[in-house]
Amino acid sequence: MKTVITEQINEKLTKLELQRLMDLYSDDLLFFIRGIVRNNEIAEELVSDVFVKLWSKRKYFSEIVNIKSYLFILARNESISFMRKNNRIKIVNLEELSDYHFTPLEENNGSDLFDQAMINQINEAIDSLPAKCKMAFSLAKVNGLKYKEVAEIMKISPLTVKNHVAYALEKICSKIGLSKKRKITHIFLFLFEAFIERKKIRLQFL
To answer: For the whole model, what pTM was predicted?
Structure first.
């Protein structure tokens, strides 16, 4: 059994602290990068590049205000650089991406929140979303980033992030047959976030 990893960050970046950050954020960064480059092996390499770059800038580590956002921004930059160099696509920012791969959700064994049939419907609804909407929803509701943080990563406004998430929720609720009433949508969102959090907790104890 592993000790639960916390997000408390030390002021100095040591090799031990770097490893702790890798344990804490590698999976989230992998899903994010894979969504952009659409290749698991390349995504794994780029995640490694993110932490190599973090280590190379370790003398400035104490100046980083939000390490999670910082790592996602590094991941964004590495992904865009890869796309430019290898796909010969003139991508300047994430706004220009035509597609974003969302890693499908899977049922937890013994989950009392959603059964696999409903999870399949949720996945179908998310997968049908426009690329930027899909990314914003994933970053906000799966990775747990705040709207302001998502906005910084995607280089859009927090209001645009909020609108993307609202649109995604409307599509998901429609797909699974929920009412458009705001209270029902909030209940679904609460259950969805609880489902995601439970998955993260179980992963920490594997």
So the answer is: 0.80
